[in-house]
Amino acid sequence: MKAKIDTVKTLLDALPYIKKFHKDIVVVKYGGSAQTSHELKVKFAEDIALLHTVGMKPVVVHGGGKSITNLLSDLNIGTEFIDGQRVTTKEVMRIAEMGLSGEVNKDIVSLLNSQGVKTVGISGKDAEFIRAVPKDKKKFGYTGVIDTID
């Protein structure tokens, strides 16, 4: 019974935001640290499905640093971090793109589809949708920062 009361309270607290952002595009950043277990992934998909159900248009922008690190480890490729930022060589960039586009993105799309949210996954490289510039090429290699989004 307490769980139901808590759910009702949460929905009542959220109601002003649901009204304010109804029919709006809502961008949600889904970081790699929130993708560490199947349970967290399912909960995330349920939360996005709720946003969709109440009339918002969620756009998920995901990371996947932990998945990239695991993939590099599986391939016996070392990775270096400076101040919490990955130093990205050309080889690491190729592997990161494979992991993000081929695994992380597809998993997210599959989970959202299983929640009844018709979902399509795209990469920032598709149609140069997102363009980045190097952060500090000498220090970080191919690690960059977003410059423009179309």
Fold blueprint:
Blueprint (H helix, E strand, L loop, with lengths): L1 H20 L3 E6 L7 H16 L3 E6 L2 H10 L5 E3 L2 E3 L2 H25 L15 E5 L2 H4 L3 E6 L1
Parallel strand pairs: 1-2
Antiparallel strand pairs: 3-4, 5-6
Helix pairs in contact: 3-4
How would you sum up this structure, described in words?
- This protein has 150 residues and is of the alpha+beta class.
- Helix content is 50%, strand content 19%.
- The strands form three sheets. Strands 1-2 form a two-stranded parallel sheet. A two-stranded antiparallel ribbon has the order 3-4. Strands 5-6 form a two-stranded antiparallel ribbon.
CATH superfamily: Acetylglutamate kinase-like
Structural class assignment: alpha+beta
- What is the CATH level 1 assignment? Alpha Beta
Helix content: 40-55%
Question: Low-confidence parts, pLDDT < 50 over ≥5 residues?
Answer: none
Strand tally, please? 6
Please report which band the strand proportion falls in: under 5%, 5-15%, 15-25%, 25-35%, 35-45% or over 45%. Answer: 15-25%
Number of helices: 5
Tell me the distance between the termini. 47 Å
| Main β-sheet description | 2 strands, parallel
